[in-house]
Amino acid sequence: MSGHSKWATIKHKKGAADAKRGKMFSKLAKEIMIAAKSGGDPSMNPTLRTVIQKAKAINMPNDNINNAIKKGTGGGSSANIEEITYEGYAAGGIGLIVNVLTDNKNRAAAEIGHIFKRNGSEFATRGSVARNFERRGQIIVEKSAAEEDKLMEIVLEAGADDMSTDDEGYEILTQPNAYQAVASALEEAGVPTVSSDIVYLPMVTKELTDLAKVKALLKFVDVLEDNDDVQNVYHDADIPDDLLAQAEED
After folding, report:
1. pLDDT tens by residue, 182-240
2. Class of residue 36 by CB neighbours under 10 A (exposed 0-12, middle 13-18, buried 19+)
3. Among 176, 175, 178, 166, CA closest to 140
4. In angstroms, how far is the first alpha carbon of the chain from the final one?
5. Beta-carbon count within 10 A of 249 CB
6. Strands 195-202 and 133-142, bridge-based pairing
7. Of 181, 179, 197, 192, nearest in space to 234 by CA
8. d(CA 74, CA 22)
9. Residue 94: closest CA among 125, 121, 126
10. What is the spatial distance between Cα 215 and Cα 205, in angstroms, rounded to a whole number?
11. Is the dihedral of CA 175, 177, 180, 182 positive or negative?
Protein backbone atom coordinates (compact mmCIF):
# COMPACT_ATOMS: atom_id res chain seq x y z
CA MET A 1 0.00 0.00 0.00
CA SER A 2 1.66 3.21 -1.13
CA GLY A 3 0.93 6.64 0.28
CA HIS A 4 -1.24 7.03 3.34
CA SER A 5 -2.84 4.05 5.04
CA LYS A 6 -6.30 3.02 3.87
CA TRP A 7 -7.23 1.87 7.35
CA ALA A 8 -8.41 5.17 8.79
CA THR A 9 -10.65 5.72 5.76
CA ILE A 10 -12.04 2.18 5.95
CA LYS A 11 -12.76 2.53 9.67
CA HIS A 12 -14.48 5.88 9.03
CA LYS A 13 -16.73 4.31 6.38
CA LYS A 14 -17.47 1.27 8.56
CA GLY A 15 -18.39 3.50 11.50
CA ALA A 16 -20.75 5.49 9.30
CA ALA A 17 -22.32 2.28 7.99
CA ASP A 18 -22.78 0.89 11.51
CA ALA A 19 -24.58 4.09 12.51
CA LYS A 20 -26.96 3.71 9.57
CA ARG A 21 -27.43 -0.05 9.65
CA GLY A 22 -31.14 0.04 8.79
CA LYS A 23 -30.48 2.20 5.76
CA MET A 24 -27.64 -0.13 4.71
CA PHE A 25 -30.05 -3.09 4.87
CA SER A 26 -32.42 -1.27 2.52
CA LYS A 27 -29.64 -0.42 0.07
CA LEU A 28 -28.24 -3.94 0.04
CA ALA A 29 -31.74 -5.33 -0.49
CA LYS A 30 -31.82 -3.39 -3.78
CA GLU A 31 -28.49 -4.91 -4.80
CA ILE A 32 -29.75 -8.39 -3.93
CA MET A 33 -32.94 -7.85 -5.93
CA ILE A 34 -30.96 -6.75 -9.00
CA ALA A 35 -28.51 -9.63 -8.70
CA ALA A 36 -31.29 -12.19 -8.16
CA LYS A 37 -32.90 -11.27 -11.48
CA SER A 38 -30.15 -13.42 -13.07
CA GLY A 39 -30.97 -16.36 -10.80
CA GLY A 40 -31.90 -16.82 -7.16
CA ASP A 41 -29.43 -19.62 -6.36
CA PRO A 42 -26.23 -18.08 -4.89
CA SER A 43 -24.22 -21.17 -5.80
CA MET A 44 -25.02 -20.56 -9.47
CA ASN A 45 -24.97 -16.75 -9.40
CA PRO A 46 -21.62 -15.28 -8.32
CA THR A 47 -22.92 -11.71 -8.32
CA LEU A 48 -25.71 -12.65 -5.93
CA ARG A 49 -23.24 -14.58 -3.79
CA THR A 50 -21.03 -11.50 -3.55
CA VAL A 51 -23.87 -9.23 -2.44
CA ILE A 52 -25.06 -11.78 0.13
CA GLN A 53 -21.54 -11.88 1.56
CA LYS A 54 -21.64 -8.08 1.91
CA ALA A 55 -25.05 -8.28 3.59
CA LYS A 56 -23.92 -10.91 6.07
CA ALA A 57 -20.81 -8.86 6.86
CA ILE A 58 -23.07 -6.17 8.38
CA ASN A 59 -25.34 -8.77 10.03
CA MET A 60 -28.31 -8.29 7.73
CA PRO A 61 -31.01 -10.77 8.88
CA ASN A 62 -31.52 -13.86 6.71
CA ASP A 63 -35.22 -13.03 6.38
CA ASN A 64 -34.33 -9.69 4.77
CA ILE A 65 -31.91 -11.42 2.39
CA ASN A 66 -34.41 -14.13 1.42
CA ASN A 67 -37.23 -11.61 0.91
CA ALA A 68 -35.01 -9.55 -1.40
CA ILE A 69 -34.10 -12.66 -3.40
CA LYS A 70 -37.80 -13.53 -3.78
CA LYS A 71 -38.59 -10.03 -5.00
CA GLY A 72 -35.73 -10.18 -7.47
CA THR A 73 -36.65 -13.57 -8.91
CA GLY A 74 -40.34 -12.66 -9.01
CA GLY A 75 -39.87 -9.43 -10.94
CA GLY A 76 -42.22 -6.84 -9.46
CA SER A 77 -40.55 -3.73 -8.08
CA SER A 78 -37.06 -5.02 -8.91
CA ALA A 79 -37.86 -4.82 -12.62
CA ASN A 80 -37.89 -1.02 -12.45
CA ILE A 81 -34.62 -0.51 -10.58
CA GLU A 82 -31.86 1.03 -12.68
CA GLU A 83 -28.16 1.48 -11.98
CA ILE A 84 -26.86 4.98 -12.70
CA THR A 85 -23.47 6.61 -12.12
CA TYR A 86 -23.00 10.34 -11.53
CA GLU A 87 -19.68 12.17 -11.58
CA GLY A 88 -18.54 15.48 -10.15
CA TYR A 89 -15.97 17.32 -8.07
CA ALA A 90 -15.65 18.36 -4.43
CA ALA A 91 -13.54 21.16 -2.92
CA GLY A 92 -9.90 20.94 -3.90
CA GLY A 93 -10.69 19.34 -7.25
CA ILE A 94 -11.41 15.96 -5.67
CA GLY A 95 -13.19 13.67 -8.14
CA LEU A 96 -16.37 11.90 -7.02
CA ILE A 97 -18.17 8.89 -8.48
CA VAL A 98 -21.67 8.29 -7.10
CA ASN A 99 -23.18 4.86 -7.74
CA VAL A 100 -26.99 4.79 -7.60
CA LEU A 101 -29.74 2.16 -7.71
CA THR A 102 -33.15 3.74 -8.18
CA ASP A 103 -36.69 3.06 -9.35
CA ASN A 104 -37.07 6.72 -10.39
CA LYS A 105 -34.09 8.16 -12.26
CA ASN A 106 -35.64 11.63 -12.53
CA ARG A 107 -36.07 11.84 -8.75
CA ALA A 108 -32.56 10.51 -8.18
CA ALA A 109 -31.01 13.00 -10.60
CA ALA A 110 -32.88 15.89 -9.00
CA GLU A 111 -32.05 14.91 -5.41
CA ILE A 112 -28.38 14.14 -6.04
CA GLY A 113 -28.00 17.23 -8.23
CA HIS A 114 -29.42 19.28 -5.36
CA ILE A 115 -26.85 17.80 -2.96
CA PHE A 116 -24.05 18.73 -5.37
CA LYS A 117 -25.35 22.32 -5.63
CA ARG A 118 -25.66 22.65 -1.84
CA ASN A 119 -22.01 21.67 -1.64
CA GLY A 120 -20.89 24.18 -4.24
CA SER A 121 -20.61 21.73 -7.12
CA GLU A 122 -22.51 20.24 -10.03
CA PHE A 123 -22.42 17.12 -12.19
CA ALA A 124 -19.34 16.73 -14.38
CA THR A 125 -19.31 15.60 -17.99
CA ARG A 126 -19.78 11.83 -18.16
CA GLY A 127 -16.41 10.09 -18.16
CA SER A 128 -14.39 13.12 -17.08
CA VAL A 129 -13.98 11.77 -13.54
CA ALA A 130 -14.37 8.05 -14.23
CA ARG A 131 -11.35 7.99 -16.54
CA ASN A 132 -9.17 8.41 -13.44
CA PHE A 133 -10.69 5.31 -11.81
CA GLU A 134 -10.64 1.59 -12.52
CA ARG A 135 -13.00 -1.15 -11.40
CA ARG A 136 -11.18 -3.63 -9.19
CA GLY A 137 -12.01 -6.24 -6.64
CA GLN A 138 -10.57 -5.02 -3.33
CA ILE A 139 -10.31 -7.16 -0.21
CA ILE A 140 -8.81 -5.87 3.03
CA VAL A 141 -7.57 -8.33 5.67
CA GLU A 142 -6.21 -7.47 9.12
CA LYS A 143 -2.61 -8.42 9.87
CA SER A 144 -3.63 -10.74 12.71
CA ALA A 145 -6.06 -12.69 10.51
CA ALA A 146 -3.51 -14.59 8.45
CA GLU A 147 0.19 -15.31 7.90
CA GLU A 148 1.44 -13.31 4.93
CA ASP A 149 3.02 -16.10 2.86
CA LYS A 150 0.02 -18.40 3.29
CA LEU A 151 -2.44 -15.63 2.47
CA MET A 152 -0.51 -14.70 -0.65
CA GLU A 153 -0.50 -18.31 -1.78
CA ILE A 154 -4.29 -18.57 -1.32
CA VAL A 155 -5.19 -15.40 -3.18
CA LEU A 156 -2.73 -15.71 -6.06
CA GLU A 157 -3.78 -19.29 -6.72
CA ALA A 158 -7.42 -18.12 -6.74
CA GLY A 159 -6.67 -15.48 -9.38
CA ALA A 160 -5.74 -12.26 -7.54
CA ASP A 161 -3.55 -9.75 -9.36
CA ASP A 162 -1.63 -8.49 -6.37
CA MET A 163 -1.37 -8.42 -2.59
CA SER A 164 0.37 -5.63 -0.69
CA THR A 165 0.90 -5.08 3.01
CA ASP A 166 1.50 -2.39 5.59
CA ASP A 167 1.68 -2.35 9.39
CA GLU A 168 -2.05 -2.96 9.85
CA GLY A 169 -2.91 -5.50 7.19
CA TYR A 170 -3.16 -6.66 3.61
CA GLU A 171 -4.81 -5.28 0.51
CA ILE A 172 -5.74 -7.82 -2.17
CA LEU A 173 -6.63 -6.60 -5.65
CA THR A 174 -8.34 -8.56 -8.42
CA GLN A 175 -9.93 -8.02 -11.78
CA PRO A 176 -13.74 -7.79 -11.39
CA ASN A 177 -14.28 -11.20 -13.02
CA ALA A 178 -11.80 -12.85 -10.63
CA TYR A 179 -13.11 -11.21 -7.46
CA GLN A 180 -15.65 -13.87 -6.51
CA ALA A 181 -13.16 -16.74 -6.82
CA VAL A 182 -10.69 -14.95 -4.54
CA ALA A 183 -13.39 -13.96 -2.01
CA SER A 184 -14.64 -17.56 -1.95
CA ALA A 185 -11.11 -18.93 -1.48
CA LEU A 186 -10.64 -16.70 1.56
CA GLU A 187 -14.02 -17.72 2.95
CA GLU A 188 -13.19 -21.42 2.50
CA ALA A 189 -9.82 -20.87 4.21
CA GLY A 190 -11.55 -19.22 7.16
CA VAL A 191 -9.84 -15.86 6.65
CA PRO A 192 -12.04 -12.97 7.88
CA THR A 193 -12.05 -9.71 5.94
CA VAL A 194 -12.39 -6.09 7.04
CA SER A 195 -13.96 -5.09 3.73
CA SER A 196 -14.58 -6.92 0.48
CA ASP A 197 -16.20 -5.54 -2.65
CA ILE A 198 -15.82 -4.56 -6.29
CA VAL A 199 -14.97 -0.87 -6.14
CA TYR A 200 -13.77 2.12 -8.13
CA LEU A 201 -10.11 2.76 -7.28
CA PRO A 202 -8.38 5.98 -8.35
CA MET A 203 -5.36 5.44 -10.58
CA VAL A 204 -3.92 8.77 -9.37
CA THR A 205 -4.82 10.33 -6.00
CA LYS A 206 -4.81 13.97 -4.91
CA GLU A 207 -3.35 14.66 -1.49
CA LEU A 208 -5.73 16.74 0.61
CA THR A 209 -3.96 18.52 3.48
CA ASP A 210 -6.32 21.43 4.15
CA LEU A 211 -8.50 20.63 7.18
CA ALA A 212 -11.42 22.74 5.96
CA LYS A 213 -11.44 20.94 2.62
CA VAL A 214 -11.21 17.54 4.32
CA LYS A 215 -14.22 18.43 6.48
CA ALA A 216 -16.13 19.67 3.43
CA LEU A 217 -15.38 16.45 1.53
CA LEU A 218 -16.46 14.21 4.41
CA LYS A 219 -19.69 16.19 4.84
CA PHE A 220 -20.37 16.02 1.10
CA VAL A 221 -19.82 12.25 1.00
CA ASP A 222 -21.89 11.63 4.15
CA VAL A 223 -24.86 13.58 2.77
CA LEU A 224 -24.65 11.70 -0.54
CA GLU A 225 -24.47 8.33 1.22
CA ASP A 226 -27.48 9.26 3.35
CA ASN A 227 -29.62 9.42 0.18
CA ASP A 228 -31.76 6.29 -0.16
CA ASP A 229 -30.80 5.75 -3.81
CA VAL A 230 -27.03 6.11 -3.36
CA GLN A 231 -25.22 2.81 -2.97
CA ASN A 232 -21.58 3.94 -2.90
CA VAL A 233 -19.50 7.10 -3.21
CA TYR A 234 -15.89 6.93 -4.37
CA HIS A 235 -13.30 9.73 -4.42
CA ASP A 236 -9.66 10.21 -5.34
CA ALA A 237 -8.54 12.13 -2.23
CA ASP A 238 -5.52 10.94 -0.27
CA ILE A 239 -6.10 12.19 3.28
CA PRO A 240 -3.39 11.81 5.94
CA ASP A 241 -4.65 9.67 8.82
CA ASP A 242 -4.02 12.32 11.46
CA LEU A 243 -5.94 14.92 9.47
CA LEU A 244 -8.85 12.52 8.96
CA ALA A 245 -8.96 11.83 12.70
CA GLN A 246 -8.88 15.58 13.43
CA ALA A 247 -11.72 16.24 10.98
CA GLU A 248 -13.86 13.59 12.65
CA GLU A 249 -13.21 14.96 16.13
CA ASP A 250 -14.05 18.61 15.35
Report:
1. 988 998 899 988 888 889 999 999 999 999 999 999 999 999 999 999 999 999 999 88
2. buried
3. 166
4. 28
5. 6
6. antiparallel
7. 197
8. 24
9. 121
10. 18
11. negative
